[in-house]
Amino acid sequence: MSENAQTNQRMLLAIVTGPDSENVENALAKTAYPFAKLPSVGGLLRERSVTFLIGCPEDETIELRKLLQDVAGRRIGYVSPVLDNLPMGSLIPTEVQIGGVTIFELEIEHYEEIG
User: Fold this and answer.
1) What pTM does this model have?
2) When you count CB atoms within 10 A of the terminal residue's CB, does the N or C end of the chain come out lower?
3) Mean pLDDT value across residues 41-59
4) How far is CA 28 from CA 8, 31, 56, in A?
């Protein structure tokens, strides 16, 4: 069993949209946190998303959450909705929220590094 298995560890599961995933990966690569990423497609709009599995000491979870929020937080975007009764669609952009991160924090009771 590794020495790290004796400390209070957490695993954060951070689900981000596809366009934000590269920014999150680059930010995590500059830290000492080990992480893995799992791409997926699904949901109502069949959007691409990425789930990051991030290991972190218990006392550093607040800083890690702040980093994720800064890199992949919600922001305002604009889309032009298509209206059925207009031949060319709507030319008036509509404000929408894009991006964001959903975070699950799991307590790690035990882990081993094999190999």
Assistant:
1) 0.75
2) C
3) 84
4) 20, 5, 11
